[in-house]
Every structure is written in C-alpha cells, then in structure tokens.
Amino acid sequence: MVSVQPVLPGFHPDPSVCRVGDDYYLACSSFEYFPGIPLFHSRDLLHWKQIGNVLDRPEQLRLPAAMPSSGGIYAPTLRHHDGRFWLIVTNCAEGAGNLLVTTTDPAGPWSDPVWLPGVPGIDPDLAWDADGTCWCTFAGVGQVAIDPLTGRTLGEQRRLWSGAPGAKAPEAPHLYHIGDHWYLLIAEGGTERGHGVSVARGPGPNGPFEPCPDNPLLTHRGTDHSVQNTGHGDLVQAADGSWWMVFLGVRPHGGTPGWHVMGRETFLAPVTWTDDGWPVVGEIVSPTGTAADAPFHDDFDLAELHPSWISVRDRSFDHCTTEDRPGFLTLRARGTSLDDPDAVFIGHRQQHPACRATASVDAAQGVGGLSVRLDEQHHYGVETDGTQVRVISRVGPVRAVVATVAVSPGPTVLGVRITPPPPPHDSRTGPDVLSFGIEERDGTFTVLAALDGRYLSTEVAGGFTGRVIGLYAARGTIHVDRFGYEPLPA
Ligand code: 6LW
Description:
Elements: E1 16-20, E2 23-27, E3 33-34, E4 36-42, E5 49-55, E6 73-81, E7 84-91, E8 98-103, E9 114-115, E10 125-128, E11 134-138, E12 142-146, E13 153-159, E14 171-178, E15 181-188, E16 196-202, E17 210-211, E18 218-219, E19 228-237, E20 243-250, E21 265-273, E22 279-281, E23 296-298, E24 310-312, E25 320-321, E26 329-332, E27 344-349, E28 355-375, E29 378-384, E30 388-395, E31 398-406, E32 412-419, E33 433-439, E34 445-452, H1 458-461, E35 468-487
Antiparallel strand pairs: 1-2, 2-4, 3-24, 4-5, 6-7, 7-8, 8-9, 10-11, 11-12, 12-13, 14-15, 15-16, 16-17, 16-18, 19-20, 20-21, 21-22, 23-35, 24-27, 25-26, 26-35, 27-35, 28-29, 28-32, 28-35, 29-30, 30-31, 32-33, 33-34
The structure holds (Z)-L-Arabinonhydroximo-1,4-lactone.
(Z)-L-Arabinonhydroximo-1,4-lactone is lined by residues 13-14, 29, 74-75, 122-123, 171-172, 187, 191, 231-232, 248, 464.
C-alpha cells in the first residue's frame, strides 16, 4: 500500500491557507508553545517552507505559567485582502481572547494584536463582502460584523448554522464568496475519530444557509484509512483555477484503539464542483521530497534560532540563548524538572513515525538533557548531571528514574531512537518504541531504556498537540553543542 503523507508532518493542526498570485501561505495552531503560529510558504501547495512565526514577540503572545498545556493559541484564519495579510485567532489563556494581527510581509514582522472583546468563543474567521463589511464567523456557528482595524463589533451577533442535527462541535467555520453563492464550511463531530467537514451555502454572507445534500464533504470516520480524524478544512483556489482543501488528520499506529503520537498534521486534497455547485473533496495527495524529510540539525552557531524551534510558553533570553557561549545553546533552569509548567524546554516537532534525535550536552554546571514531550505530565527523557546519565519517565502522576549509568566527565551525546514495535503484533501492541541512551564515540548507540510510546500519545495524554523532541534544563545551566533530528526508514 502506498503510504499517505501529510504536507506538513508533525503537530501542525487547524491549517488556514491563502494565495497571492503564485504564492501560497499557510498558518497553524501552536497552543502552549512560543513563538506562536508557524507560517509557511509554498508555490505548489505540496512543498512548504516555514518562513517565520506570526506571534514571535512577547508583546504579541503572553502565555502564563499557570496555563495548562493545550491552552493558548487555537485555530487561526489567514486571509489576504486589500493589499494586506490578516490573521485572526483565539488565545485561550486566562484573560486573553480573540485577536487580529496584520502585515504586508507574511515572514514578519506582524503587528501587535488588536483585541476583539465582542467576538465570543473560538475559531474566528474573516470574510469581506462587496461593500467592504468584514464578517467574523466563529464556532457554534455564529457571526458578527467587525471593524478589523479597531476590533470593535458592529451590530448584533447572529446564529448561522449548527451543522448536522445532533453532531457535536460545529466549529472551524470559513466563509467564502464563490460564484453566485456564499459557502460556509465547518468542521463537526469533534476533532477525534468522528471528525468531518460539512458545507452549507446561501445568497449572502449572513445566509440563510442551506446544507449540502452530500454532507459530510470529508470524513474518515468508521473507515480503515491510515489517516483518521480528518476535519477542520480551509479552501483555496490555485492560480490555474483548480480548487484544493487543506485539513487536519492524524496517523494512528499500533493495536486498539490506535495511538497517534505526532499530533494533528496538515493534509491536502483536490476539490471539484458538482454541476449543481457543491464542492467534492478528492483523495489525499501526498508530497515527496519535502523539507521535513531532510535531516534537521543545529550547531547553534547563529545568534538567531531557526523558526521551527518552539519553547514552552516563552523563550526568555535569561533562560535560553546562543549568546552566552558562542557555538552553544545555553539553557538555564527555572523549575526543577520538565514536570514544571514553566520548565525551560526548546524542541523540534516529531515529524516521522521512525526517527532519531541526538544532543551533545555539557552538564558541568547543571542537569539537563533530551526529552520527548507530549505535555508536562507525559514525557520521557535522558538527562545528565555530568557524572551520571539517567532515563526519566513521567506518565500521568507517576515519575520514575528507569535507568542510571555513570559517565566520565565531559560532554555526553544523548540520543533517542523512535522505531516501530518489534513483532509479534496484537491488538494491544503500542504505536512505537522509544529507546533512550548514549551515542558512543565509536558510533554505537548504548540503549539504557526502551519505553512504550503509547504513553506519549494523544489518546493517553489528551489535548490538541503532539510530540516535541527537545532540550531542557532541570537544574543550573547546561550547554548544548549540537542537536540533530533525522527520519529513519519506517
Ligand atoms: C480548534 C477546533 C478544532 O479550535 O480543534 O479540530 C480545536 N478542530 O476547531 C483546537 O485545535
């Protein structure tokens, strides 16, 4: 069977896309990570390159330490209108809400946020009608006119449509004026196995909306497709007139119920139109040779970090810098372990079912290492204090040191390999195995502990994110000389 691939592998959910000339831009949710909202550019919708992050200044994005994982930044809508890029999104952290930022250059900088206190809930969308009114449609599904420059709401909120009777979570609305109709695309059924995309249309931006007789347009519920949870789509028309949908999906592995570990990923499918003017979603198209398939490594020789690096909640210069010791990333602990909500952690998304990561860590002045993180209660790691290397498992309320070995003084190269579970397989086989250990000078890998990957999956941990593999300081200061991540043959 040909494997179906995402266009953006790893935790890249809730994609929103727009086109300007021959260029496409796409934004995703980022939850508790900083910088927020990765922004990608493509010329063909299949191959994407990250060109920045929309919320990359603390003035734009504050995520309090008390905020649980999977809070923070949910579901942006990215649009180009009147010569500018507009992005509207929800910050679910306490005291925040819906916000809008703009730019003329999507690589940044983006403006400071304009707050929209009159827009309720999550998943805000932006659409402009012919007389210039800006309609903000939100989960539920409701709508209100806004002034996008001031964030003020204009007039009353109205209810538009709730999707199929009885289906849960009508959300992720996007409104488009295509031909003679206004189309309202929504997600429904929840972002789990029941997820899907449905559409309705009406004569104007406020409806009344008539549901498509063939809803849902897209769902993999109840199928044995390798990509599940498909939903939360956004439409874009290519320069050649063809139509496409980007949407999220997951790749579960292992026995029952299937565990997905890389979060919700972005997929692409063609869209055609019936004679009657309803969209039809085709089969997923898979890219080959994407940027994500090349090994990622960082020697920390540049002051500025690659935009794909993400930190938990913030990245302060005091705790994470390449400027203290040239050629090294210096991490200074804030809490005492990765269990702390404000732990110092910086990582790269796991983007392949089989992969390996390594980090050369100098822990002469502290404790830290390499972790695979789902959230603060679900992570495995290998860490050193300069005299010992330990493998730590944190699963739910239980934290355990599962292996310890003495090492000689000097930097240690810590490693993790993520591989499919060895046979025999049965209904209880996990999705993968995470082997933590030491990369020896002679090129061999000494495994200290091999752990079941199901405990670092969304089906176990809950939430909206996926695994992130990265570096952390648990005590004092550590210096990291090199981080490497590469796919392995699955
Ligand atoms: C998002 C909602 C959803 O706001 O999940 O899959 C929520 N859809 O639309 C978090 O990503």
